[in-house]
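Methods — Computational structure assignment.
A single polypeptide chain was analysed. Its primary sequence is given first, followed by the predicted tertiary structure written as structure tokens.
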Amino acid sequence: MNAGELEGLFREKFGKEGFRSFFAPGRINLIGEHTDYNGGHVFPCAITYGTYALAAKRTDRMVRMYSVNFSEKGIIECTLDELSYHTAHDWANYPKGMISYLKKTGYLIEEGLDLLFYGNIPNGAGLSSSASIEMVTGVMLQSLFALKIDRIELVKLGQIVENQYIGVNSGIMDQFAIGMGKKACGMLLDCQTLQFRYAPIQLEHHVIVIMNTNKRRVLAASKYNERRQECEDALKILQEKVPAQSLGELSLETFEKYETSIANEIVRKRARHAVSENERTIQALEALEKNDLYTFGELMNDSHRSLRDDYEVTGAELDALVEAAWEQNGVIGARMTGAGFGGCAIAIVERGSVGDFLDQVGQTYLAAVGCEASFYIADIGDGASEIELEVHI
């Protein structure tokens, strides 16, 4: 959908001109999986797929919302005085939540809004479309109402909306990457302290390919809770040897010195992943600061092996995609991204090899699992902001 079509839709749905335009990206996590709740780091980046919002203030207290992606739902309406969660409002609960919590926090939003949303994040791909809607709404409200709110405070508010209003107990990585993203950079983020460092990712001769298994991620709560419990069990045993508050505080050298004290092999493997994966995030920052993309690619490969063998969260589909990617010419590295058990993997591929890569990996995956994968070429972009609509989006 292009800018002219979006402008025409806004006029058609709301009967007015004079809107302003905003964009918030989706995100991928380049390395550092299942490290956040173990006191470690993550390494996400913002991508150029995301959510567009066209917005205009009203003279009353009515909020009217329309999504191109859910056109069958029509215009969803509420007022600034009734912003509670309603199941029937479906996708519109995300912008409603941001409006509600900004008002609850004390920010003045006294006029209603006409809002049109359009997202080009692939549906169900695990690239964080919900946080993208939250953050584009937050930036839009900040600009339209001249709210004096620090960007990291806005990021934190987005997570609170996700946790308390929507009811999804997620961490802060998604909103942080989307709110703080920087073109051509990843970021090493400590999810506990929110300390972060940008790392340049120079991809002149390479692209990031997102590979969707087209198996919806079914990380059962029981499996997730099981992994967390196993890591907590390991930490309690290790705390008898070393003064650590989390597995993320341990170096791999320290862990290997004391790992035999963990009698249960499965618990030991879970802890090994948490510790080694966190160390890989630090090594990834160092590699990228030296513009050493090849070392970064090897760390991606090691990450997937650890998630497959020690943490056991990959599954047949993700393994089939990643292992097919490893076999192709021009591939620097590939790994699952996200929580696992379905969803997406990513690969860094030489530009000249992309066509063959898509053909070969697609065929191999289809033969292995019996369904087709989807592929997207992603650029690393900036975080949420007001924009001028471009001709083709």
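Note: The longest strand covers residues 41-57.
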